[in-house]
Design brief:
This protein is of the alpha+beta class. The protein folds into 2 domains: about 15-70, Muramoyl-pentapeptide Carboxypeptidase, domain 1; about 75-195, no CATH class. It is about 20% helix and about 30% strand. It is built from 4 helices and 11 strands. It has a 5-stranded antiparallel beta sheet with strand order 2-3-9-8-7. A 3-stranded antiparallel beta sheet has the order 4-1-11, with no helix packed on it. A 3-stranded antiparallel beta sheet has the order 6-5-10, with no helix packed on it. A hairpin with a 2-residue loop joins strand 7 (about 130-140) and strand 8 (about 140-150). The protein is elongated, with a radius of gyration of 21 Å.
Amino acid sequence: MAGEPVLRAGDDGEWVRYLQQSLNHHYQQQVSAETGEFDAALDGAVRHFQAQQDIEPTGVVDALTWQALTGVVHHWPDEPVATAEVAAGDVVVRLALTLTGEAVGGDVLADLAVDLGTDPPTFTCTGATFLPGTATLTDPATVEFTGSCALAGAADTTGYALTVTVDPAMSPTEWLAAQTQPCTVALPVVAGLEEVA
């Protein structure tokens, strides 16, 4: 399954039931009643599983625990995962973010935003750390910022490329340099992780 949520003691519902079924399947016996309630018994079973897998036994079922339990790995698509278009006076700035690498699931980009008033642009996103890289002018109106980021649940360091295009054509670096105050833009996610076959 894709997009598994983080689960912990006190949660309930179909995802908890799926967790219970997955643990029972892993151990080939019933280690947790399939009630859909994350009770003390399930917490103990999760901690035991995590310790067996050399995962810190927190009892919190995060992306790393899901990967160990289900063996499902995902990769980012060959298209932008987030886009935005911002009007700044007579200028329109188009943003497109692409990611590379593999991850184990989860909606890690739900609150992604980029500050175009910094050089290079600064990303904010809960559970993710973006490191600045290099800037390349790909045509007179487009600059591509590349770097790496650490995403929750990612198998390896993820590469990113943020493409900034200014219309009508003017140098994006000149436009960014002209910004005298923070210009934070939300980047709505338009594509998500794809399961690796």
